[in-house]
Every structure is written in C-alpha cells, then in structure tokens.
Amino acid sequence: MKLTQISLTLAAFGFAFHANASTLIQQVRVFDGQKILAARNVLIDQGKIMNVDYKGQIKADMKVVDGKGRTLMPGLIDAHVHAYQDQDLPLLYGVTTQIDMFTAVPLMQEMNKRMANGSNTHNADLISAGVLATAPGGHGTEYGMEIETLTKPEQAQAWVDKRIAEGSHFIKIVIEHGGAGYKFNSLDSATVEALVKAAHVRKKMAVVHIGTFEDAKVALKAGADGLVHLYVGSAISDAQSKELIALAKQHGSFVIPTFSVLESMAGVKAEDILNDAGLTNMLNKTQVLPLTNPYGQQENQAWLTAPKKLTAAMHAAKIPVLAGTDAGNRGTQYGISLHHELALLVEAGLSPSEALAAATSVPAQAFHLKDRGRIAQGMKADLVMVEGDPSVDITATRKIVEVWKDGEAASPLRQQKAAQVAQERAVKNNAVRLPADGRISLFSTEKLASPFGFGWVPSNDAPMGGKSSVELKVFADSGLQQNAVKVAATVNPGFAFPWAGIAFFPSTQPMQAADLSAANTLKFKIRGDGKTYTVGFTMQGSFIPVTATVTADKEWTEISLPLSRFKGLDTSMITMLSFNAGPTPGQYNFDLADVRLVKE
Strand, helix or coil at 570? Predict the structure, then answer.
C-alpha cells in the first residue's frame, strides 16, 4: 500500500454539523459491551448516553426510534487497521473507532484535532500509533514513506519521545523477518525490549507486530502490552501454546488474531461478506477490489490451523482477545471486514457475546478508551442498532438498522453512499476501443507511443525509495519487421521488493483507470538473457499488481497470456501494464515487441 497521498473528506457529503435533539430508542434489546440486557428505552442527547433504562415521559422534542426486535450495541471498534484511505467506510458499517497501527502522521494529527474539538461526527475516530518502530530495510519501509528506523537499544527513548510529540496514542513495534521469496531486516530483541520500556516510562502502551512463534516469544518476553497479529501455520503444539499463554499472563498482554488478513495470506476470500448484497451495496468497484484479491494465490486452509488453535487456547486461558482485521491490506476492507472477523472469532471458540465484547468493551479497556465500548450513562453515544440478536447469531451484526456517531444518526451517509454505488453500477460499458490488430506498442526512436493512453515509460522502484535503474532503447528488428525496445535493468537492494522494467499506462494520465474489458488476452514477443520476468496488471485502488511470470529465451518467443490467468484481475479498472525484472538483485536484459491486447 502507498501512503504518500492521503485525502480525508471530513465534511462528508456536505452535511452540516449540528447538535441533535435528544433521541429515545424504544423497547430495544441492549448488548452493553459485556452482556445482553432485556428490552428497554435508551436515551441519548448531546453526543452522550444519558439513560440506559429511561422510564420518563416522551417529550415533544425527542426523536423516537423503534427498537422492537432489534439489538442496540456500542459502536464497534476495529482494533487493527491502517487507515490511509476510504475514511467514509468504517462508520457506514457500524465501526465508530479504528485502532490504527501505522499511517501518515499528518492524517493522524488532523484526526486528533477533529476528535478534540468534537467535529469528527461523520467519520470513525482514529486512535493511532502513527509511525511504527522498525529496522532499516524492515517491514514498514516498503511503502514509500520516510521512516525513522532504529538499529540499537540506545535510540529507543528518543524515538518514542518523538512519536509522542507527533501525537501517537501508543507505540507500534515490528518484529518481522519476511517469508517465502522475500526478506526483511528486523529489530533485535534488545531494541524491542528497550522500546517497550521507553513507552512504559512515558505511560504509553507498546504493541508488537509478529510473524512467527519465535517472534511472539520475543515480544511477550519484552513485556509487550499486546500482539497485534498471530501468524499463519499448519501446526502449533500444546507446549508452544502454553509457553505463549504463560508469557502473556505474566505481562498482562492481549492478542489481536487478525484472522481476516491471515485468511488473505492463506488465499481464502471472505465469501460470506462478498456475497451479501446488503453489505456490498456501499462499496464501489475500487473498494470491492481488495476483498476479491487476497495475497495468497492458492487457497491453503491448513495455514489457519495454528492461529485458530492458539486463539482458542488463549481465550480459554482468559487472555484478552480483540477483534481486528488489518484493513488496508489485500483481502480486507474497512468496516465490512470486521463483521467477517466476528464470525471467525466465533469459529475459533468465542461465544457470540464474547466476540461482540472483543469488538467493543475489550479493546476499549485494552487501549484505555474510557469513554466508549460500553452502553452506560455518560459514555459517547457511538452506537449500532441491528435486526435480531447477535448474541445468538453473530451474523446479525450485518443487519444494520442505524448507526450513531457522537449521537448523530449516520443513515443519511449510508443512504447517499448506497445511491452513489448504485449509480456507478448502472453506468454502461465504457471500454476502450482497441485497434483492429490489438497492438498497443507503437515504438519509435522519437516516442514509446501507443494508440491510446499515456503510453510507455521506464519503470523502477525509485519512487518507493529503491535503488534500481533501467535504460530503454528502441531498435529496428529486421526479423520481426517492426521496432522493439531493449530493456537493460539493474535491480539493486534498497526496497523490499525491488524492480526495474517498462510500463504502459492505458489512461490519458498515469495511474488513472482505463476499461480494457474489450480484451481477454495479452500477447507479446520477448527474448533475452534466459531469466524470468514478471508481467503485471495494476488496478485502481491498489499499488500491488496481479502477476504472471515468463522466461526471456535467446530467440524471439511469442507469449499468449489469457487475462483469466491474472487472479483477481478486473479488466474494467486497469491503471498499468508492466514488464519487470526482479526482485532478485542483478543485471537483466530483455527485448520486448508486438504487445497486443486482443479478444480471442
């Protein structure tokens, strides 16, 4: 994900801020954050819960809401997100607070101001770590943001103090060494321990991202307040579970399993929410895309064995389990994914009521948010009302009737977003008209031209802080009887996934979407040094391409790739086609010609 351009539409849809008249929710079942209460009247006013069992008269200026057969809950809290875009979404799905584990400091600071002056009525509140603590070349440095990294324990206190001065609510630490096909540098255990101590000296929490069982041990031994992930794995022994539980109990730590993103890593889609039209009717095409495009290319349910077993064991041992999605990553989406996460927590052994608590009172207590997470007098009037009883059927959280943020109903926002999405879906096909032969490579010595779009450009990882480079040279090939382009790429370490190559922008402006649904096949000719290269399509709303690999043999070879081979590709919203060398460092040379998008 790229975090450099962030726009926050805070005066969403043009609704003015104003103080509401009091609202009386009548005869509604209440989940108070811990338990179900029998049907009652709940009074809210001036952004607060005034009375959780109102028995007085109905006054003329009260707005009365029917709660019969419905359940009123505290506003949901997603305990793990990266809130760099789509600020409108969480509230539409009843998520009134997001615990952010890494986002741009200006966004965090703006949200801090809005929350402080009471003008954040139309967005979920953001409780953010701001910048995370990581090593040079560590996880978190791959997104194109400048990050102050650490190499030794002596830097910890100054680093923590800078984050607090920026407005961070807590400290996020990364222990991550990478996985198959990629590696990260990671903080050592001494630096992790120093960071935890430095945070605690300033009375701030310190939570840790981990990727393995061993990482979890390091984090908990260092005294981390919480693990903000579990990890994928096909097995975990009872002895390993007991070891982590003992460490968590020793330090009073909590855990956020983030099943939604672990499923994505395992190639599992959240089909239950994808197939729920009542939920997806507020997602535009770009916002649906992450849910349809998980990280794993092949489904591997076995990878979920370890986190499920460990979550069940920790819950049974009374380690606090919090609901968090890691929204902002592929396979997830803000707001909507939390409803999927609740169902996964129930699958892992929590009762529906315990899962509801994991998204309300438990994260509020864990992150010391004393004004939310409960339905009690004086609490913020951040509320969700649903049809049915989610303490019996957890999927009832998806049947949202109304959301209140600081006492203001969000139904106008929900209705307007649904109308916008419906209008988008009603637009007729606007596909680019492809040339008769489908050729999009009109290479000449003057220009890397194309019959439509911005055209062809050199591409490398420099915009993301990488050190790779590429040179392009057009030449006439007598055998092909057309021009080709020679790509000389130098792939250097410096970015987590380094690359260099050539890219085509199909729209008139780079990184704007074009509808290429008139094609179903990509064809091109390639030759080169015998190495493997990546062909990728990037879609609107994502900076991670869906890819296939090809080999550049010494002689010209025509490659034909059905677009169906690019898993998760939506051809109606393509921003870029690329041919790249990497990520293995080295020198690469390949020639490219006769690139065509055709219908077969």
Answer: coil
Nearby residues of 133 by Cβ (< 8 Å), 6 or more positions away: 150, 159, 171, 172, 173, 174, 187, 195
Query: What percentage of the chain exceeds 90 in pLDDT?
Result: 88
Residue 574 structural domain:
442-598
How far from the centroid of its chain's Cα atoms is residue 23's Cα? 34
Residue 307 counted as domain residue:
yes
Q: Which residues pair with 386 in a beta bridge?
A: 71, 400
Which DSSP letter does residue 488 get?
E
Q: Which of 124, 421, 454 is nearest to 278 (CA)?
A: 421
Q: Locate all alpha helices (DSSP H) within 348-488, ordered by sequence.
A: 352-358, 361-366, 411-426
**Do 395 and 446 sit in the same domain of this protein?**
no
CA distances from 204 to 129, 356, 502 (A): 10, 26, 46
Other Cβ atoms within 10 Å of 1 Cβ, number: 17
Domain count, the chain: 2
**Residue 55, token pair as written in the block:** 């028995």
Q: Are strands 76-81 and 70-74 parallel, antiparallel or unpaired?
A: unpaired
Q: What are the residues facing 12 on neighbouring strands?
A: none
Q: How far apart are CA 354 and CA 513, in angstroms?
A: 43
Domain-terminating residue out of 390, 424, 458: 424
Among the listed residues 379, 325, 380, 368, the one whose alpha carbon sits nearest the alpha carbon of residue 90: 325
111 in a structural domain: yes
Sequence letter at residue 488:
A
Q: Left (φ > 0), alpha (ψ -120 to 50) or beta: where does 151 sit?
A: alpha
232-236-240-245 Cα dihedral, nearest 10 degrees: 60
pLDDT at 457: 96
CA angle in degrees (0–180, nearest 5) for 413-32-80:
60
For residue 469, CA distances in Å to 20, 505, 580 come to: 58, 19, 11
Task: Tell whether 362 and 455 lie within a shared domain.
Answer: no
354 and 469 part of one domain: no
pLDDT in the model for residue 227: 98
Question: What share of residues in the chain are helix, strand, coil (percent, to 5)?
Answer: 25, 30, 45
SS3 of residue 595 by DSSP: strand
Please, which residues bridge with residue 413 across strands?
Answer: none
How far is Cα 514 from Cα 511, in angstroms, rounded to an integer?
A: 9
The answer to whether 188 touches 136, Cβ cutoff 8 Å, is no
In a domain, 464, yes or no: yes
Environment class of residue 494 by beta-carbon count within 10 Å: exposed (0-12), middle (13-18) or buried (19+)? middle
In a domain, 22, yes or no: yes
User: Is the Cβ–Cβ distance between 98 and 124 less than 8 Å?
Assistant: yes
| Structural tokens at position 304 | 């979920």
pLDDT reported for residue 181: 67
Q: Where are the beta strands (DSSP E) in 229-317?
A: 254-255
Residues 344 and 454 in one domain: no
**pLDDT at position 20:** 54
> Cis before residue 320, ω within 30 degrees of 0?
no
Tell me, yes or no, whether 397 and 527 share the same domain.
Answer: no
What are the residue ranges in the chain where pLDDT is below 50? 1-19
Residue 180 has a pLDDT of 66
Query: 511 with 581: CB under 8 angstroms?
Result: no
Is there a single domain that holds both residue 232 and residue 365? yes
- Judge if 529 and 381 occupy the same domain: no
